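Table S2 (continued). Query chain:
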Amino acid sequence: MLQLPPLSLYIHIPWCVRKCPYCDFNSHAQHGELPQQQYVDALLQDLQADKAYVQQRPLHSIFIGGGTPSLFDADQIGRLLAGVRRQIPFDKQIEITMEANPGTLEHDDFDAYRQAGITRISMGVQSFAADKLQILGRIHNGHEATNAAKALAQADYQSFNLDLMHGLPGQNLQQALHDIETAAALNPPHLSWYQLTIEPNTLFHSRPPQLPDDEALWQIYRTGQQRLAELGYRQYEISAYAKPGYECRHNRNYWEFGDYLGIGCGAHGKITLAAQQKIVRTIKVKHPKGYLAGQYHYQTNPVNSEDLPLEYLMNRLRLMRPIPKAEFEARTGLPARMLEPGMQRGVAKGLVIVHDDSWALTDKGHYFVNELLGEFC
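Corresponding output:
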């Protein structure tokens, strides 16, 4: 039987100073003054319309993403969080993350956002190398990123994350490791370290840059993994590394197939409906013009039971921990035996170890997740 998982909230703020050539997120270049107050009002009305999905749960975590949420001033972020709290109670241990970029703290400093209610900042550094930042279309330089991270470390947040990319155009192993060493010297409790991929509907897709070859990418990944471990960062997800006690609660809830409300332009949500014993996905209107006109809801789609095993695994296999069979049953409402044939095929390929109460990926399995997922398609 389906059981209600923890409930998170994703809030999308769609504006950036300019669109990066690799970005396929729903983001729009800023033109003139942003409609901060009007957009916060719309977000709170959007949330009100989703209240039936809460089902008496407190909020486990909040993530304010984008776009570049730090384009909004701390007063508006504080007003937003206060409005959310009036509608849905907060868990005592709630984690509230806001994305920020080193070059977009025009309104307020990190202290102001902390006082507004943010408990965790995720800062998009991507690289500290000037030539790589220019290729990526970033508006900051390495010096600004370093200064912003130092200020963030002194702002008394519960945690903060630095985003880094690897496999950048023209990047070699030494350059990738230099980014890791520079970031680690700033002592962030959490690091996201992920490979640049070329996505459709991006400038890089229409004008592809020259990326390192597969052998170089593999060397960067394996060596970077080892160095992060030596520096005290434990890999708990495909692209997430944390010091003990600093895993991201919000992202873990995604990967554990928890529930999340999604409000804001183009935001997605995933909700368990206990009374109906079904799971639905929600999508909100994508363009700011329509959203600000009060057209919040775009689509609500039920997830077919035959699609649930693959949907669950596409999320859960990102985590490095074993999968409890009881968790699969609670989050999907399906018997664990439904996964056994595919898992046994994974065993034959050296990708999975089956235990009485869980499934665990082998070291090889963590590198060939897509091959294992193919056994469930």
